[in-house]
Automatic annotation (TrEMBL):
Residues 361-383, 437-475 are annotated as: Disordered. HEAT repeats lie at residues 964-1002. GO terms for cellular component: recycling endosome; trans-Golgi network. This is RP404-like protein. It comes from Hibiscus syriacus (Rose of Sharon). SMART domains: LisH (SM00667).
Length: 1050
């Protein structure tokens, strides 16, 4: 096999060199050498190393040509790497898809694997055919007795040989050589073998005859060509058949795969639909059960009332019997028709009793009929009560006529009461019963009835005969629906003609119509009227409208609230008036408890999200407030990260009102709802650092201090301030969580002693993890230190906010934490040595990493971290002595050192200036400054004068008069010119800031003393300080300066 392979390679090498395909031959040489096939590359080596073929001068000329630009090559390399990364990603996706399909296809394609085993043999036969073809054609050219030039290749022979060489290179794995070969042959498309004699099954026959015509020694070649032709023909036919069968199998598998995917999607859709249908069915079943319970309870109440009415009828019958027994004293005054009337009454009573029994029988069957017959039963029950009332009144009214003198009002009252009760029988039922009982008391004590009663008994009978048949008049329910319909039709016409300030008085009528009207379209129209009742409602009017909506939602239930009230909110969300959008924001929070929880975290949350982008400040504030109300109604935590993002968006709002609402209401609500304090803290620190890093540097000079400091814009400064406020508001939560997760059981329960030295010692052992406690000093402080190193000197407001945060941490976590945790971290951060005893060993490296390593880092630490150390860490209560010692070391001992640069001294002065912004440290600072003033060291005196000049704007008039001026006057009397000039500059700063006459007079006297000195340098220093003080000083001192200026000029 190796001999055959070498022979083929030699054929190709000879062909390439003879046809002068030098580029392809050179590429093949390299690929043969890479494969380690040096034996086949010998001729190529000799050819390309032959000076006769490639002269040295020509090669040197080619090597002197310009090469590619390294920058362009680098860019091309980066572009190719990006494309490669993209292709790798696409390859991974493709591989994942292939892995998914492989399992499914493996079972179905196992049947066809056996058929693929013969492909390799077929390919080998095809390759053998090509090389036999190549050998025959080459043999034709190398007939004995002929030279190469005597038998040049024909065009079609060269094309066939080119194609055979290209196939050999591809099959042999020489792809670069094959590409070079295709590029070098410009007159032929090697991707498609043209229809030539060599491309048909009997191609060998053509070359066979030509070979026989040129040589008599080709009998063996003839036989071999015939065998090869037959073998190739058979293998080609078998390959075509196998290819077709495999293609069909592949298509069938693809079709089955698509069918399976469609069935899967269809099954998933059916499952989702069935799940939703099941949930709806369960909910409807629950509602039906509740309705059944309500119906049963209502009918129990009605049955109880029916029993009461039966008792009343029995008592009335008894009263009728008693009235019949007492008729003898007045029988002479009653006509003959009266006994017949009593008989009629008795018959009516019997008929009414039968009617009551029938109604009782119907009542037993009513609870089984469901909700559809409930209204009809209520109407029947109302009619029954009306009939009973009519019966009772008739029985009592008639015997009153022949009796003694009774006031006519007693007779008329029951009649009037009945007339009213026919319209609302349930409400007026008690009144007739009371009137009847009163009238019963009249009869025994009344003696003889009044003879002046003008109405005969027939009139009373006629008066009450109307209501005896309740079906003859309109049913109360129908009358109620008619009233609601009239109200619904009239309200839209009435509302525009009511004064705006009085329209809220129509809200009860609108609510009644919305709640009771049966038509959906009418209810929607009335709900729209309710929301648009007032064009621009004020706060009180919005409160009234919203209370009405809440009341409707309570009575409606979830479904009607979602379909009738919430759509009105959505219509108003883009209204031109902010008052209406405010109404939408209020509804999102207050209606949340009356809708399904799935609606709260989807539709209502999307409304809130849109309102957060509203241009009106009051709308954004309302959105923040109502988002806090909405959170407890979320069914799960899927929307937590979205809500947290909205919270940070509201926190960075340009309006202070929105920020206050977010910090006071939304932030605690998210912490209580989400219980993800650790995530909020991580995101907060990242937001703080990102807000500062987004700002451009003060200088573009790389490696300078200014390149690390950031130029903050107004928006960036505002955002950082708010984020630091959030960080301060989270301290109680961090403190509480650290206490709750404390791993040491021997800890005291008192919050004041929770982080004692013993606890810190246990924590320093490093045997247990305490991430809630560790976050503050491991992550938070390092983030604040990083921020401080990016703030320029003028950003005192942000530095002040950070200082207040550190003071709050000291207050919550205690003195031990401040002394043994906070102080070491910030000491290391400014470049000083610190004791890390109370830190676990695995944190030591992180804390040591805060130490500045370069001069630039050291100056950044002095500029940004030293003020925080002085005011926020050492400035907390209880560290007065430690702060004094550190300041004395910094100012007295530091200034006494030699080779201190002016820049370093100015940075120290700036840190002390920031400490003076806290009034409680003034006395300590002035004590140390006085030590520097009375010192014999000139550098200390100059430094004291510079500090006094810097802190002038942060002291009161009293402090300036008692401490600053005496110190500067003392320095002004020093013999050193530098000290005297430094005090002059400081006095000029005092003159600019204070306008007190006493202070100005002292400064003027001291300036005169400087001028009397006569030194030119001192005089110039006085001139500079006075000129700078002119715009801001008092009028008297300004006149003094002008006089001095005139004197100098003269």
């Amino acid at each position: 096999m190796d001999v055959e392979r070498s022979s083929r390679c030699n054929f190709v090498v000879n062909f390439l060199l003879e046809e002068n395909y030098l580029l392809t031959a050179f590429e093949l040489l390299h690929e043969l050498l890479e494969e380690g096939r040096d034996a086949q590359a010998i001729r190529l080596k000799e050819f390309f190393s032959d000076p006769s073929h490639f002269p040295v001068d020509q090669i040197s000329r080619y090597s002197s040509l310009g090469v590619a630009d390294p920058q362009s090559l680098l860019e091309e390399k980066e572009a190719i790497e990006e494309k490669l990364t993209l292709r790798d990603y696409e390859l991974r996706l493709a591989q994942e898809d292939v892995t998914k399909l492989k399992t499914e296809l493996q079972m179905k394609s196992a049947f066809y694997l056996d058929k693929l085993s013969g492909i390799d043999a077929s390919i080998s036969v095809a390759v053998a055919f090509l090389w036999q073809l190549f050998s025959i054609i080459n043999g034709l050219r190398r007939i004995p007795g002929r030279k190469y030039g005597d038998c040049p290749l024909k065009a079609n022979e060269r094309k066939d040989l080119n194609f055979a060489v290209k196939e050999y290179l591809l099959i042999g794995g020489y792809r670069l050589t094959a590409m070079t070969f295709c590029e070098e042959i410009t007159d032929q498309n090697l991707d498609v073998w043209e229809n030539s004699p060599a491309s048909v099954p009997d191609a060998l026959r053509h070359y066979y005859y030509q070979y026989l015509s040129s040589s008599s020694d080709a009998a063996e070649i003839q036989l071999a060509s015939v065998n090869i032709s037959l073998a190739f023909k058979m293998e080609k036919i078998s390959l075509i058949r196998e290819n077709e069968s495999l293609q069909k199998a592949n298509d069938r598998l693809k079709y089955e795969k698509e069918l399976l995917m469609k069935n899967k999607n269809l099954a998933e859709g059916q499952i989702n639909a069935l799940t939703k249908s099941l949930a709806t069915t369960h909910k409807d079943l629950k509602d039906k059960k509740n309705q059944i319970q309500d119906v049963k309870h209502a009918w129990e109440q009605q049955r109880k009332e029916l029993n009461d009415r039966r008792d009343e009828i029995a008592s009335l019958k008894k009263h009728v019997d008693i009235s019949g027994s007492v008729q003898d004293p007045v029988s002479n005054s009653v006509d003959f028709a009266q006994p017949q009337t009593f008989e009629n009454y008795k018959e009516e009573i019997k008929s009414l009793q039968k009617e009551i029994e029938r109604l009782n029988a119907e009542e037993r069957n009513i609870p089984n009929k469901g909700d559809s017959s409930r209204a009809e039963n209520e109407s029947t029950y109302t009619e029954e009560k009306v009939v009973e009332m009519d019966e009772n009144k008739t029985l009592i009214t008639h015997p009153m006529e022949p009796a003694g003198p009774v006031d006519s009002n007693v007779l008329s009252a029951p009649v009037q009461t009945f007339d009213n009760s026919t319209h609302n029988p349930e409400e007026k039922l008690a009144e007739p019963v009371m009137n009847l009982s009163n009238s019963n008391d009249v009869f025994p004590s009344g003696g003889t009835l009044s003879q002046q009663n003008e109405k005969p008994p027939s009139e009373y009978i006629g008066l009450h005969s109307k209501p005896e048949n309740p079906s003859s008049g309109p049913a109360p329910e129908n009358m109620g629906l008619g009233t609601i319909q009239i109200l619904a039709d009239a309200l839209p016409k009435i509302v525009p003609y009511v004064l705006i300030n009085h329209r809220e008085e129509l809200i009860p009528l609108i609510m009644c119509a919305i709640e009771r009207h049966p038509d959906n379209a009418t209810r929607d129209s009335l709900t729209h009227t309710l929301f648009n009742l007032i064009k621009r409602p004020d706060e009180q009017q919005r409160r009234i409208i919203m209370d009405a909506c809440v009341s409707l939602a309570k009575n409606f239930g979830e479904v009607r609230t979602e379909t009738e009230i919430l759509p009105q909110c959505w219509e108003q969300i883009n209204h031109m008036y902010e008052e209406r959008r405010l109404l939408v924001a209020q509804s999102c929070g207050e209606l949340a408890e009356f809708v399904r929880s799935e609606i709260c975290d989807s539709l209502i949350l999307s409304i809130i999200q849109q309102l957060i982008e509203d241009p009106a400040t009051v709308v954004r504030e309302a959105a923040a407030h109502n988002l806090a109300l909405l959170l407890p109604h979320f069914p799960h935590m899927d929307k937590y990260f979205k809500v947290e993002e909205l919270m940070f968006q509201l926190a960075c709002d340009p309006s202070g009102v929105v920020v206050e609402t977010t910090l006071k209401e939304l932030l605690p609500a998210i912490i209580n709802w989400g219980n993800k304090l650790d995530h909020i803290l991580r995101v907060l620190i990242s937001h703080i650092l990102a807000s500062a890093e987004r700002c451009p540097p003060l200088s573009g000079v790389e490696g300078s201090v200014e390149s690390h400091l950031r130029a903050l814009g107004e928006e960036d400064r505002w955002n950082l301030d708010v984020l630091l406020r959030i960080l301060a508001d989270l301290i109680p939560y961090v403190h509480q969580k650290a206490i709750e997760t404390c791993p040491f059981s021997s800890v005291s329960e008192s919050n004041g002693t929770i982080f004692s030295i013993s606890v810190l010692g246990l924590y320093a052992g490093g045997h247990v993890e305490w991430p809630a406690f560790e976050w503050m000093h491991a992550d938070c402080f390092s983030g604040l230190i990083q921020l401080a190193c990016m703030l320029p000197q003028k950003e005192d407001s942000l530095r002040n906010r950070t200082t207040n945060f550190l003071l709050a941490v000291s207050e919550h976590f205690g003195e031990s934490y401040s002394k043994h945790v906070m102080v070491p971290i910030f000491m290391v951060a400014v470049g000083d040595a610190a004791d890390l005893t109370f830190f676990p060993p695995y944190i030591h490296s992180r804390i040591e990493g805060l130490k500045p390593r370069t001069d630039v880092a050291q100056r950044l630490a002095i500029l940004g971290i030293l003020p925080l150390l002085l005011a926020g860490v050492l400035g907390c209560p209880g560290k007065h002595e430690q702060l004094a010692d550190y300041l004395r070391k910094l100012l007295v001992e530091g200034a006494a050192k030699e080779n201190q640069s002016t820049t370093h001294n100015n940075d120290i002065v700036n840190a002390v200036r920031f400490l003076c912004t806290f009034e409680e440290h003034h006395s300590l600072i002035f004590d140390i400054l006085w030590e520097m003033v009375v010192s014999s060291n000139i550098e200390l005196k100059i430094s004291a004068a510079n500090i006094l000049k810097a802190i002038v704007t942060y002291v009161s008039t009293k402090v300036a008069s008692a401490h600053v001026l005496p110190a500067l006057i003392t320095l002004g009397s020093d013999q050193s010119v530098n000290v005297k000039n430094a005090s002059i500059d400081a006095l000029g700063a005092v003159a600019q800031h204070f306008k007190n006459d006493m202070i100005v007079d002292k400064i003027r006297v001291q300036m005169d003393a400087f001028l009397e000195d006569g030194s030119h340098e001192t005089t110039m220093a006085v001139v500079r300080s006075l000129v700078a003080a002119v715009p801001n000083t008092t009028e008297r001192f300004r006149d003094y300066i002008l006089e001095f200026h005139v004197e100098i000029n003269s």
